[in-house]
Amino acid sequence: MTKKVQIAVQNLTIGYGDFVLLKDLNYNINRGDVFIIMGGSGCGKSSMLRVLTGLVVPQKGTILIDGVDFTKASPAKRNDIMRRAGILYQSGALFSSMTLAENIALPLEQYTDYSKREIKELVSLKLALVGLAGFEDFYPSEISGGMKKRAGLARALALDPEIVYFDEPSAGLDPVSSRLLDDLILDINRNLGTTIVIVTHELASIFAIGSNSVFLDGESKSILGYGNPRELLKNPPNEKVYHFLTRGGNEHA
User: Fold this and answer.
1) If phi over 0 gives left and psi between -120 and 50 gives alpha, with beta otherwise, what is residue 227?
2) What is the rounded distance in angstroms from the CA atom of residue 125 to the CA atom of residue 128?
3) Could you tell me if 92 and 140 are in contact, meaning their C-beta atoms sit under 8 angstroms apart?
4) Is the pLDDT confidence value at 147 over 50?
5) Whole-angstrom Cα distance, residue 192 to residue 188?
């Protein structure tokens, strides 16, 4: 069955002032993908994510989200589109002065008409979804790094988004916590049908959860690889992609 395109990147150029970081990019993110944005340090992965989430305006090109031109939409329309998306930042970006329940309740209080009782129930549901049932009254300083990431994910899921963006979700985590987070991302993707877009350079995560990907290259300022990461490993389009995906011969079958 052919998947429906949810995000279409067309002729996109990203830069700052006179400096061009990436140019003439074209790729699609399908509904239900676990889509990996990968590449070496400084290739523009994080800038690509900022453009996809509306934090940076591209120099040229178009991003269509469910057929709507996100790059040229009015502020009200852009807010409406982003309200259907969630973002998990590297640190989790939780407010340290708020409990986990208060952090997760924030978007529900701002963007819905739910009663306090309904919000409380939804907060407990989202925490349970990420394996943090019973941690409502804990503060971010009282939990581990992996738990902070999961709490941040619970907040990103508060409004039942169609798309969740992740910025280096495994950064700072030990291998066990990183694997648990990967498993959680897969569960959300499979059980809720959420489209996942992840910036990462972690090979274990790329091969464990990625169903589609794009490889960005800072030297050529272009895309050097596009497709399922395992297929790119089996049939590498060029040496740079092969070297990145094997890291000196450490192949993932």
Assistant:
1) left
2) 5
3) yes
4) yes
5) 5
